[in-house]
Design a protein that fits this description.
The structure holds two protein chains of two kinds. By secondary structure, chain A is an alpha/beta fold. Chain A has helices at 2-10, 60-76, 93-102, 114-119, 148-160, 163-168, and strands spanning 31-33, 39-41, 49-55, 81-87, 109-111, 128-132, 138-143. In chain A, 36% of the residues lie in helices and 20% in strands. Chain A starts with a helix and ends with a helix. By secondary structure, chain B is mainly beta. Classes of the chains: A alpha/beta, B mainly beta.
């Protein structure tokens, strides 16, 4: 109930503010390193629906969402869905890796950069989660901890968005 | 009537805009003006710095329970003539939050004080000095966290002249035993 109230004031889906004008446009591409030093671009996932989760090791609410993300990756991954975590953290790579291992994370964790956060309108709240359709367009954004059902709804929409594009390929 | 309607429209717009503002409006932690600390040359003195965490937010105490949490730390810049003898933090409160009801975090909420011990050198010139520093904290509310912040702090120290050292007992007059 408490979450519902907080969410109501924080929800910022397709109809956002000035920063929310990102929504509906192409998701800004980035090139970030994974915990094991590989480079990953968002555009590498073109054709898949992507949940892009900005988080940090110090963020308690982020920790609540992560087990859901593990389940959602297992459930929807085979249907062309990918979760990507971006750690906006001052902690060392080793600490972030340990945290991710402790949380049994089964999706890539990238080492975030301020510039990437800025390209997404500034990430001043953690967690902040974006949903990217199969066509590479940003379709929604959520600030703060959300209920699992909110993620499921957005994931389903993201998987449908741009599905024609995928079908034509 | 038109003015009234325009005011209502403006108010609605302002409220809508405010709803899109995310996170603390301004810093989640503010410092109250510090009392003037009077210290004597060469003697230690302590000043309590009072901080207030905005309603609805919490920050980690100086000794949070998890290695991943960022402690609240006051860093005071040393000056040439005034030594910082140490900082004393209050105990945090063990609290649970809606995002993790089974977990206790050790946090500061509302008002808390950090005591700073200063010791002016005996050689420091009497007068007023400003001591500066930063309070590093990381705030969260019930459903989100915010990147670590550094709050600039300062307080004034008035250095008073040390009383002259007591004189050695004068040699007893040879007449005293008469």
């Amino acid at each position: 109930m408490l979450f519902a109230g907080i969410r109501a004031s924080r929800r910022n889906g397709a109809n956002g503010s000035a920063k929310g004008q990102l929504i509906g446009g192409p998701a800004p591409d980035f090139d970030l390193q994974t915990l094991d030093g590989k480079n990953v671009k968002l555009s590498d996932y073109r054709g898949k629906a992507v949940l892009l989760n900005f988080w940090a090791t110090y963020c308690g609410p982020c920790k609540i969402e992560m087990p859901w993300f593990v389940e959602l990756q297992n459930e929807y991954g085979p249907q062309g869905f990918q979760i990507v975590g971006v750690a906006m953290d001052d902690a060392s790579t080793e600490e972030i890796a340990k945290f991710a291992k402790d949380m049994n994370v089964n999706y890539p964790i990238l080492l975030g950069k301020e510039a990437v956060g800025q390209s997404y309108g500034g990430v001043s709240v953690l967690p902040t989660t974006f949903f990217v359709g199969r066509d590479g367009k940003l379709m929604a954004r959520e600030f703060g901890l959300q209920s699992r059902s909110v993620f499921v709804d957005h994931i389903k929409q993201a998987m449908n968005q741009g599905s024609r594009v995928q079908a034509q390929k | 009537m038109k003015t009234f309607l325009a005011s209502v429209v403006l108010l609605v717009c302002v409220c809508a805009a405010a709803q899109d503002d995310i996170g603390p409006q301004g810093p989640a932690v503010k410092m109250a003006p510090a009392p003037l600390l009077t210290a004597v040359q060469g003697k230690s003195a302590s000043v309590p710095l009072s901080f207030r965490v905005a309603n609805g937010y919490h920050i980690n105490s100086n000794k949070p329970k998890s290695e991943y949490l960022i402690p609240t730390v006051l860093k005071v810049e040393a000056t040439t003539d005034i030594i910082i003898g140490g900082t004393t933090y209050p105990d945090g409160q063990d609290m649970s939050f809606a995002f993790a009801p089974d977990e206790k975090l050790n946090v500061y909420t509302g008002d808390f004080n950090v005591d700073v011990l200063v010791r002016p050198l005996r050689s420091v010139q009497p007068g007023k000095y400003v001591v500066r520093g930063t309070l590093k904290y990381q705030a969260c509310d019930n459903s989100a966290c915010y990147p670590p912040k550094q709050l600039p702090i300062s307080f004034d120290v008035k250095i008073a002249k040390a009383p002259p050292p007591p004189r050695a007992n004068p040699a007893q007059s040879p007449h005293a035993h008469q």
